[in-house]
């Protein structure tokens, strides 16, 4: 999985006054969990742009002076009106410990059902996976080249040896629905097939 580096500095004061001062200065207060003890730090709000405002999933390298931590974004608080980032929680990664996170679904292939006029619907845009940090995928590939009109692609078709998908077997990832135009054409074709041929003797 691709990684983004965030450079920040550890926080000595974690009270409301210090937190407000950080935000006024354009910084975001953060906490890193998962290790022996929580690490409080802050970083410039602009540093999180490529991490937060993207549909892609990333791991994060947090650099705090001479210290460095591998992590993933766990939770984020955003102002309800201004959409400014108020606070971010990270979770530290360890090479020998599995981690759970959501990754996007990437559709590949061409569906025969879509070529016949069906409409592809992506029911699940992100899937929750569990894996060692080195095996975390950038995305889960959803191959749709076998989907005929009316078919569904279930999560059981997306299994991998490198990670586990934490969803029920009946979870629908994508499906090809019959469009109104295709349905109308089918109905008209059925009526035409049943209609008697003019001039044919009984």
TrEMBL record:
CDD domains: Ribosomal_L25_TL5_CTC (cd00495). Keywords: Ribonucleoprotein, Ribosomal protein, RNA-binding, rRNA-binding. InterPro entries: Rbsml_bL25/Gln-tRNA_synth_N (IPR020056), Ribosomal_bL25/Gln-tRNA_synth (IPR011035), Ribosomal_bL25_b-dom (IPR020057), Ribosomal_bL25_C (IPR037121), Ribosomal_bL25_long (IPR001021), Ribosomal_L25_dom (IPR029751), Ribosomal_uL5_bac-type (IPR020930). GO terms for biological process: translation. GO terms for cellular component: cytosolic large ribosomal subunit. Residues 98-178 form the Large ribosomal subunit protein bL25 beta domain. The keyword Ribonucleoprotein applies. One of its GO terms (molecular function) is structural constituent of ribosome. Residues 6-90 form the Large ribosomal subunit protein bL25 L25 domain. The keyword Ribonucleoprotein applies. It comes from the Bacteria. HAMAP family: Ribosomal_bL25_CTC. Part of the 50S ribosomal subunit; part of the 5S rRNA/L5/L18/L25 subcomplex. Contacts the 5S rRNA. Binds to the 5S rRNA independently of L5 and L18. This is one of the proteins that binds to the 5S RNA in the ribosome where it forms part of the central protuberance. Belongs to the bacterial ribosomal protein bL25 family. CTC subfamily. PANTHER family: RIBOSOMAL PROTEIN L25/GLN-TRNA SYNTHETASE, ANTI-CODON-BINDING DOMAIN-CONTAINING PROTEIN, RIBOSOMAL PROTEIN L25_GLN-TRNA SYNTHETASE, ANTI-CODON-BINDING DOMAIN-CONTAINING PROTEIN. This is Large ribosomal subunit protein bL25. It comes from Flavobacterium psychrotolerans.
